[in-house]
Specification:
Blueprint lengths: L2 H5 L1 H16 L20 E9 L10 E5 L3 E9 L5 E10 L4 E6 L2 E8 L10
Antiparallel strand pairs: 1-2, 1-4, 3-4, 3-6, 5-6
Length: 125
């Protein structure tokens, strides 16, 4: 197993959070209050959580459910080897989540999918 790459995973996630935040600069917030109308309700959803899951195996670390806050979404991240085979999957709640394809990380490619549609929506991503 590539232990140095696993130890670098939190660094990769923090870079992606910064990148997804940059994508949101200039967007208009959908939660604008209009006088005379009730304030919009923010839906709270639950997400499947697993910090480490290798192909063909069950979740080996961090299995559970997290609750996404107002600015979070459910995410599924997949790390692929250079030849396209799946190496690692992780799931959870992520702030400023954004769909991202094929980010190069050393000899791997990383893919993120985000959702907020319903509870545990990241189980099927």
């Amino acid at each position: 197993m590539d232990k140095p790459l696993l130890l670098g995973l939190p660094l990769l996630l923090s870079c992606l959070r910064s990148e997804s935040l940059a994508l949101r600069v200039g967007e208009v917030s959908p939660l604008i209050s209009i006088p005379g109308f009730p304030a919009p309700m923010t839906e709270i959803i639950q997400c499947r959580m697993c910090h480490l899951q290798f192909p063909g195996e069950r979740c080996s670390r961090g299995r559970g459910i997290c609750t996404a806050t107002e600015d979070e979404g459910c995410t599924t991240g997949r790390i692929f080897k250079k030849d396209g085979t799946l190496w690692l999957t992780f799931m959870g709640c992520l702030k400023n989540c954004a769909n991202v394809d094929k980010i190069k990380w050393s000899v791997y490619l990383v893919k993120f999918r985000c959702c907020r549609g319903y509870d545990l929506c990241n189980e099927t991503l």
